[in-house]
Amino acid sequence: MTIGIVGLGYVGLPLAVAFAEAGQRVVGVDTNAGRVNQLRAGDSYIEDIPSERLQAVASRIEATTRTSRLALCDAIIIAVPTPLTANREPELGPLVGASQAVADALQAGQLVVLESTTYPGTTRERVLPILEETGLKAGRDFHLAFSPERVDPGNEVHHLGNTPKIIGGLTPACRDRAEALYGLVCEQVVPVSSPEVAEMAKLLENIFRSVNIALVNELARLADRMDFDIREVIDAAATKPFGFMRFDPGPGMGGHCLPVDPFYLSWKARELDFATEFIELAGKVNQSQPYFCVEQAERALNLQGKAVNGAKIAVLGVAYKPGVGDIRESPALKILDRLQTLGAEIAYHDPFVPELKAYRLQHTELEQALDGADLALIVTAHPGIDHDHIAATVPTVDFRGVTRRERAAARPPATDLPVPRVNQPEPMEVAA
Ligand SMILES: NC(=O)c1ccc[n+]([C@@H]2O[C@H](COP(=O)([O-])OP(=O)(O)OC[C@H]3O[C@@H](n4cnc5c(N)ncnc54)[C@H](O)[C@@H]3O)[C@@H](O)[C@H]2O)c1
What we know:
five-stranded mixed sheet, globular, alpha/beta, eight-stranded mixed sheet, 14 helices, binds nicotinamide-adenine-dinucleotide
């Protein structure tokens, strides 16, 4: 088969490589000529796809900006961004542009699958009419389906191959075609009755995470005020073998998905005169979490008799999660921005993010970032960094709890401990 992939980013490139590794030919189309040139040179820009892996299948992947090449394909997958506008409404420009490009190349017998995360109804209401403007009819002349991507960048256990793939076809025949396509690269496919069910399933997954993260973030703020360790509470609750799922507090929510996707559903719900209150509340709590982090930084400096203004602060990890260089919606940016506005002198260390142009900052070696620092902030705990050493050297606020286990292990045996008192806790987040 020849498989076209429109959009070669975090979702599209792993798909392209997986199909090529399964022996299929791939035509990868992207509007970003720089990315296309990099791929042609065998140079991967996605951490989960090492360049060697890309080079091993290079002969089966044609990277191009020419959408007319899609006419050669048996199946075409659309994996373009679905961001929000400045007013936090769905920005469907890339999706509509990609659908138009597919329509311009559409051939009878082709299968088209949308993978971009979006509100229920997008495949039927937005993509289908553009494709049918060609005069070809879905379900008869070509097939159309929605299959949400569940890629988790940096996850070394779950990947495209071993993560079940949900598929909703416009018709049963559309679904069967899509099942056969993904069966080439996925161990398990999960057919559902319609594109809308598949679209909504993806949003449910993301909203579930967003709401639960907001819940622990809010409880972390309360625990901070009550002076006890929320992570100890979570550890205790997580011993329940049923009916509880662990979520940990952090500096806020980042990435291209969780801070964005739920609002696609809120927008759609408003059209139906329906308010999605859990989504709005979770968004509000998670978006304000970085300000709580700034407050913690202020307090940690205050303990030393220092102000933010003029303080040297080392920010460790600016990507939104460990092991990746993605800074989209990263809470680190809000923290950094606020601290800079308050007059702090910021150095950041993140081997995955060479520079932050908007803040006129560049990645600094760890020793250099910590040299003379009044405070270190562990915002994203990348692997391979000795955070305990940092916390032992420089006053540190650990938003991820990574230095906590070691301090707990260093405590005297339980029999020697006084009875814990809520108002006299061991400081949790601030490790000096
Ligand atoms: N990144 C993730 O972890 C993840 C996980 C699941 C789902 N998703 C969803 O998948 C979709 C793609 O996300 P991503 O993270 O891969 O985005 P990305 O920004 O990493 O990649 C998208 C690519 O599409 C290209 N592009 C934009 N408009 C185009 C067009 N009209 N024609 C061709 N190429 C175009 C861009 O140049 C870019 O290279 C989004 O809807 C996202 O919500 C992402």
